[in-house]
Design goal:
heterotrimer; A: mainly alpha; C: mainly alpha; 70% helix; 0% strand
Amino acid sequence: MALALVLVPWCFAAVIFAIRGQRARPYLVAAGTLVQAILVLIALFLPEVTAIEGWLRLDALGRLVLGTTTVLLLATAVYLPAYLEQHPTKSNRGFCTCMMAFAGVVGLMTQAYHLGLLWVGLEASTLAVAPLIYFHRTPRSLEAVWKYLLIGSVGIALALFGSFLLGYAVLHGGGHPSLLLPDLVASAPRMSRPWLHAALLVLLVGYGTKMGLAPMHTWKPDAYGEAPGVAGALLAGAVTNCAFLAVLRVHRVAVAAGEADFARRPLLALGLLSMLVAGIFTVRQKDYKRLLAYSSVEHMGILAIGIGIGGGAVFGALLHMVNNALAKGTLFLTAGNLHRAFGSKSTDQVRGAIRRVPASAALLLAGFFAITGSPPFGPFLSELTIVGAAIDRGHILVAGTFLALLAAVFVGMGATMLAVVQGNADGTDSTPPVREPVALVAPAACLLCLVLLLGLHVPEPLAALLREAAAELDAP
Amino acid sequence: MTALVDSLLILVLLLNFFSLGTTRVKALINGSAAQGVVIGFVALFSQGELTVETAVVAVSAVTLKGIVIPRLLLRALRDVRIRQNIEPFIDYVPSLLMGAVGSGLAILFANTLPLAPEHEGALLVPTSLSTVLTGFLLLTTRRKAISQVIGYLVLENGVFILGLTLVGAMPFLVELGVLLDLLVGIFVMGIMVNHIGREFSSLDTSRLAQLKEE
Amino acid sequence: MPVHQVVLHLLCLLTLPPLLVGIIVKVKALFAGRVGAPLLQPYLDLFRLYRKGTVLSRTSTWLFVASPVVAIVTMLLAGLLVPFGYPSAPLAFTGDLVLFAYLLGLARFFTLLAALDTGSAFEGMGAAREATWASLAEPALFLGLLALVRRSGSMSLSTVLDVSLDRGWGESSAVLLLVFVSLFVVFLAENCRIPFDDPNTHLELTMIHEAMVLDHSGPALGLILQGAATKLFVLGALVVHTILPMSRGSSVVGWASFLGAMIGLAVAVGVIESTMARVRMKRVASLLIAACVLAGFGVILTAR
């Protein structure tokens, strides 16, 4: 089962790469993702199994990320055929193959129980997404993908360095170096402290780069801004979650080593800095796709803060991870629709979208409210949990800054989003509404419904999963 | 055995300086190829007893870092037909001096680190730190896209050397997976280098400056 | 040091240096696909020059005459400080390596003065360049020697260069390798070989050493050439001994390995000269700085 989650999508990817039918490929991606989703559904209800000497294991945290990502992947895969129909002249072989391969990489990442394998998975996901960003073949997207590749690769090379430092901490502590997660957790209390501290910091910087925490976020606005909406959804909802998963795996080792306090401080600092950067750059941001990128930076910051606070905030952060992924899916898919309808992503040209693409614009607006934490959507609940835990644990200052920055981002994003959706396009208001195919709207709508549902009621199986995952990450 | 490994590691350090001091892109590629080969041999000899698995890892490291990747890069270089000079942001001598000072500090710093007894006085850890540093210098001070790729490669070499201190921590398959990722990464970067060359008729990354906050 | 070894050392120092030049020339000729001059040609050249008369400019002073003599004498003295085939040199005392470095400096100083003494702009330029590169080559030489001193804990060249296996060749192979590379660069620069200077070009604007001795003729030029060859030999011996273990047993093995290594060095120089181009003036500095860096690294390694 564990291997099937990786190999089945890769087989589909190979088939997609091999066939010649330009039209058939997106449908094959949709079919492949559907098969993968069914496999994931089965896996989620199976008891925990291990494969290849314990290198692969689907634990609670892995299930959470895998489930969320699969929902997102499914939505984008449904969106894909209709999207690619809009670009019939471009070869979609690379795009479809990479997207399908990415599904398999997610399967590998979420089950990887060996830090080396985790690294291999994350690097593979970086590489699989790169061609998606460069789909439009413009100089601007070339620049974006170059920054993404270089910064991402360097960050991730640092993460490998950090993994080795962690291994060295075990070695210097007198143990046998092994990067298997259970071994690391078991030998954590005996690890050599200086090496452990160095490893934790380097790993945070490395995987934090991939997450897009400030100040390592510089690739993010460029990549998200130039990527097609589909790729943006995958980047903001799936790749970042995988990187966050890696951070959490490392955090678990830190907790087991009794260094939770040490590990939390840099997380809090980077988290607050990310929110601050997002707050500054969302104000007067004219490019609504870059705006979404900064929103992603902000939410990665929120996740880091949640883990940095600890206690009940871990539960909140995990819930927020799910919410953020789904809401980002809605936002990027609809932003892509707007971009196509107006041929621009600057508020100078894009105004009054509600009249031209009513469904997409409405969804974008709702998505904006969801992502900025307005009730009754899910992020409201998760952010409230984090703030509550922060106050409970005496981080009054953090809670205050957190709320202030949330408000700042709300105002900054709101100005742009409202202009895009409702603004008056100075007299040229007579453009008739553009036809919006259902397949381009329904996936985003479904994701938004899920976010709404999570805001109203967290289903018990999900809550149990969240509690189980949070318990591992929380120091007593 | 330690003497041999130390001599090989000194060669790695010398190649670091060579990479920082050379003016030609081709020489830079060849330098990184030589470094890959040397590191493959370090992998072979630093692991105590010789097993089939270390041999396979060493051989694949030599083939990938010493032959396949340099060929890929040389081909990318030939395809884009650019001028051969590296044109750094910081001139060769200052960057060489920076690398030297950094490497010296890395060695002195490694002396103060609490090392496992088997690595006391050995050069593995300091060389790794110094090579990572060189990689960063190349990445940040070089203008051409292709020399940045080599900076990444050198950085990766430094990480690889640190990995050699952990006998048995990285299972054989994972090690190969890392190498494969590196290969695919360089391959994708090579393609992008090609596109940059065609789109801008230059590999100067300072031309990639359209995307910024207004 | 036994008397017959001293005699052998002196014989070597006085007779072999031109042969080294001959080997280099021969290797370059073979690389270029020519037969080349016979190996002993440098001896014939020297013989020819010593038989000729001298032309002296009316404007030049005693410095002009003194400099070739100083050059050859200092080089021969320096040659007495470096061990050849026997583990010790005829002259060995604490601090002799400082004397060694400054003997090189003294020879250079007089050559510079003689070049300036001629009043020719061309030779003045050569002198300026020589001074510039020397200011970079000397630190590299000193740093390299410092590394060797720290490794061995002695201040005498004969002990410092004794790197045989039983004296810890294995433990400090890294240091020795660095010092070797650095001193080899210094060796090429000091002897004005490619990639620093092209000994074949006369009257090219780029050259250094040849530009300074253009006005010398006859026996004076002969002395200068022999001095240059001796410098090549002595510095070559220094470079070779940084990695060549000294033989403690039979002296035949010691001499054979030493002479073999010297021939190897000459061949290496020939190969480098055939395969590399002279670098631009701007880059000479960076090469020498790189040599300094390497030697400095050796020092750092010995500090561990």
